[in-house]
Amino acid sequence: MLLLLACTDPAIEASGPPAPVVAPVDGPADAPIEGLSDAWSERYDDGYDAFDTIFRTGSGLGPTYINMACVACHAGAERGPGVVTKMVVMDGDAPAADQSALPWGPTERPRVAGGGETPISVPTDVANLLVTERVGPAVYGRGYLEAVADDEIERVEAEQAAAGIVSGRINRLAWSGVEADSAFHDWIAGDTGLIGRFGVKARIVTLDEFAADALQGDMAITSPMRPTELPNPDGLDDDSHDGVDTTLEVVNRMADFTRLLAIPPRPVGIEAGEGDAAVGHARFAEVGCAECHVPSLRTRADYPVEPLADIDAWVYTDLLLHDLGTAMADGQADGTALSGEWRTAPLIGLSHHATFLHDGRADSIVEAIAAHGGEADAAREAFEQLPSDEQAALAGFVLAL
Ligand code: HEC
Ligand code: HEC
């Protein structure tokens, strides 16, 4: 009798059984890619040591820095806990032309060492200062991003321009001038028009360049790729460790660690929408998430890490910049990226994240979707129109990627 009553309830008849939610797979976030040669496996091990190394005054820390080791902001290759604080003087919704109130630039460097005495702090007496945070992103699976062929990214940029639903663009950059591991590229000083792929605004071209940039900017360790100390309130052009602090070898090994990390384990068949992933997978495409979070991109045939060469990399990003609207804007320009523009975050190993988005403002996938504005307005609205069990299936699919 009860059952019969339930079946005649039109609301229940229309919704049917709730869509299943795919369960994420437990597994390490810091495992190497499967099938590496012995030589690459050794580089992964050496790279992990370098990534874990704590730099102190004797190894060139200072004059002003944020933290002492890569692992402080990318613990176990995962996200955070360390953050970088950014600041900018705003004029209404846009960065002000006059940034002279921030003579040491837009980045807080709260610690000193190696002769530095005055940290770079967030000033308390500057009007219209917008202060934002960037959580250290996860670094696993980044070799897949580096391996993606340039013409794939250019193809997606052109397809988006033609279709007119979203309008991603490449952050075109100049090469910073010093050769790192020449196995990965042969650019020289003066080369321009390169594709930025790394950082939350795609402001860096290669993983070697990112390692050198992080050493200099976050840890105040200079290297042949970034040989000068950054401007600081004490006017020091070196720390108490004379000259360039570390070698290209160390830079390359740190980069190798990030490029040789696997994508954390995913449920088998999730990329194809098999089993419990079916509804989430289908709605992800239908509401338009996949316009920017492009499920797979083809990699270069000549990428030196063999298991990553000439494959479909399931990275769920287009590596392009998109304007996500004023609520997400941080007033920062990185390379050609503007205040509201962000690189589509790769959806990789998200079940390892405690928070989401560049500043960790979202505590769940649903909250992260709700913060998508600008070019993602239509996708967000379409998501909000879904029945709640299908929203859960879509969010569960994303979390398990
Ligand atoms: C003080 C915290 C901090 C330290 C220390 C730090 N990072 Fe980061 N890292 C970040 C933040 C924040 C970002 C995103 C910043 C941006 O895009 O401007 C980032 C981004 C990255 C990325 C790009 C990831 C992506 O998805 O594109 C790589 C690679 C990386 N860091 C490697 C390193 C290495 C190697 C070291 C050590 C030499 C290091 N980081 C030290 C905070 C840190
Ligand atoms: C217009 C392009 C665009 C569309 C459409 C889009 N996203 Fe995003 N998404 C982004 C960008 C750019 C970021 C990075 C924002 C940031 O770093 O703060 C992002 C970040 C995310 C994150 C956070 C990832 C992390 O590492 O913290 C999740 C989750 C996400 N998107 C899911 C979705 C889902 C689900 C949809 C569909 C409902 C969607 N996105 C639609 C561009 C898009």
Keywords:
401 residues, alpha+beta, 3-stranded antiparallel β-sheet, two-stranded antiparallel ribbon, 12 helices, disordered N terminus, binds heme C
Summarize this entry quickly.
With 401 residues, this protein is α+β, with helices and mostly antiparallel strands. The protein is built from twelve helices and eleven strands. Helix content is 29%, strand content 9%.
The computed structural class is alpha+beta
Helix content: 25-40%
Report how far apart the termini are. Answer: 43 Å
Multimeric organization = single chain
Bound molecules: heme C
C-alpha Rg, in Å? 23 Å
Strand order of the largest sheet: 3-2-5
Largest sheet: 3 strands, antiparallel
Overall mean pLDDT stands at: 95
**Which residues sit in consecutive blocks of at least 5 with pLDDT less than 50?**
1-13
Overall description:
The structure is a single chain. The protein is of the alpha+beta class and 401 residues long. 29% of the residues lie in helices and 9% in strands. The chain is built from twelve helices and eleven strands. The protein has helices at residues 2-8, 10-15, 38-52, 142-147, 150-163, 207-219, 248-260, 278-286, 289-292, 365-370, 377-385, 388-400; strands at 64-65, 83-91, 94-95, 111-112, 129-135, 172-173, 194-195, 297-298, 312-313, 321-323, 341-343. The strands form five sheets. It has a three-stranded antiparallel β-sheet, with no helix packed on it. A hairpin with a 2-residue loop joins strand 2 (83-91) and strand 3. Helix 6 (207-219) packs across helix 7 (248-260). The radius of gyration is 23 Å and the shape is globular. One heme C is lined by residues 66-67, 70, 72-74, 82, 84, 134, 136-137, 139, 142, 198-201, 207, 210-211, 214-215, 218-219, 254, 258.
